[in-house]
Design a protein that fits this description.
- With 235 residues, the protein is an alpha/beta fold.
- The protein folds into two domains: 103 residues, 3-Layer(aba) Sandwich (Rossmann fold); 116 residues, Rossmann fold (3-Layer(aba) Sandwich).
- It is 35% helix and 16% strand.
- It is built from nine helices and eight strands.
- It has a four-stranded parallel sheet with strand order 2-1-3-4, with helices on both faces.
- The longest helix is centred in the last third of the chain and has 18 residues.
- It is globular and about 45 Å long.
- The two termini are 18 Å apart.
């Protein structure tokens, strides 16, 4: 792997996308205005949230690899994905692709755990707790950490949009659902010291979660991609 020493018009971070129809507001990984550097997208046709999140369909590994190779061919110097559940494919993606792969925001659990006290847990807010299995956690080496996981499974607006594919978003309702979930996570787990947002549609609500939890550090896919960019671009 060669580090990119100079930013050019043809260099970018490639983002492999699920096949979705819901709105991509600023802050969402799928909105290029979220980033202050070039990104480029490649949709994996047929890779719906249902197939990736609910079914954990491993037949998607090859199409994701192909999408990654296409982005690399076009100039990507690093890759990310639009779903934290891609942690499940992390080993396959890193082995098959020739640039650094930031498959899931959950990779930041390692960092989050390292900056808090030994008796504290890392909290994870995920799109669907039922679907975030030990296999996902072990695929990126975080299954041994003390974790407190809370899902958006019962959040009507969030689930209907980001899991079931509703094409419109009630932003106010979604904000409230995210705040309520964060408060519940903190109430049930007063010993959490940091929170990682699994879902790549959650960064627009990171500030709300940060405030609601009394200023806890919040890690999400945007913090990860910004970090990835800073480690690979030297002007």
């Amino acid at each position: 792997m060669d580090l990119v020493k100079n930013k050019s018009n043809t260099s970018f971070i490639g983002i492999i996308m699920l096949d979705t129809i819901f709105p991509r507001i600023k802050g969402d990984i799928g909105n290029p205005s979220t980033f202050n550097f070039p990104v480029r997208y490649k949709v994996v046709n047929g890779a719906s949230p249902e197939r990736m999140v609910i079914k954990a369909d491993k037949s998607l590994i090859h199409p994701f690899i192909q999408a990654g190779r296409s982005l690399i061919k076009d100039g990507a110097f690093a890759l990310a994905t639009s779903c934290g559940f891609l942690a499940l494919f992390h080993r396959e993606l890193t082995q098959a692709l020739s640039v650094p792969v930031f498959s899931s925001s959950l990779l930041q659990v390692h960092m989050a755990q390292s900056i808090i006290k030994k008796d504290q847990k890392v909290g994870i807010i995920t799109a669907r707790k039922e679907s975030l299995t030990r296999e996902h956690l072990s695929a990126i080496g975080i299954d041994h950490y003390p974790l407190a996981i809370m899902g958006m499974d019962q959040a009507e607006e969030f689930s209907s949009v980001f899991i079931k594919g509703k094409p419109t978003l009630d932003l106010k309702k979604c904000r409230q659902e995210m705040r309520t979930t964060a408060l519940k996570l903190k109430e049930l787990n007063p010993d959490i010291g940091a929170i990682v947002l699994e879902c790549t549609n959650m960064p627009p609500y990171a500030k709300i979660i940060h405030t609601a939890t009394g200023g806890l550090p919040i890690f999400d896919v945007v913090t990860m991609i910004n970090y990835a960019h800073s480690t690979l671009i030297y002007s």
